[in-house]
Amino acid sequence: MAHQIHASVSASITELKKNPMRTIAAGEGFPVAILNHNEPAFYCVPAKAYEAMLERLEDLELNAIADGREGQAIHKVKLDEL
User: Fold this and answer.
1) Staple 27 to which of 6, 32, 36, 61, CB 3.0 to 4.6 Å?
2) Which class for 4: exposed (0-12), middle (13-18), buried (19 or more C-beta within 10 A)?
3) Which CATH class is domain 9-71?
4) 9-22 residue pLDDT tens
5) Where are the domains of the chain?
């Protein structure tokens, strides 16, 4: 069965076990697909890329909340009332 790989670099689990840091470095800051029997088992994502993904997800969630509140009545309050 064919599987789509969502990374430009891939490596086997054996390669990852031999030298994990070199395997991650091969992705040059992007995720590396780790293959088991030529099928993607998981993706190794560098810390900076993972943090950027989390920030992007948070932004999308906040935008969805803001979009959901669009058109609601605006209530003016004074800072001292909070």
Assistant:
1) 32
2) exposed
3) alpha beta
4) 999 999 999 999 99
5) 9-71
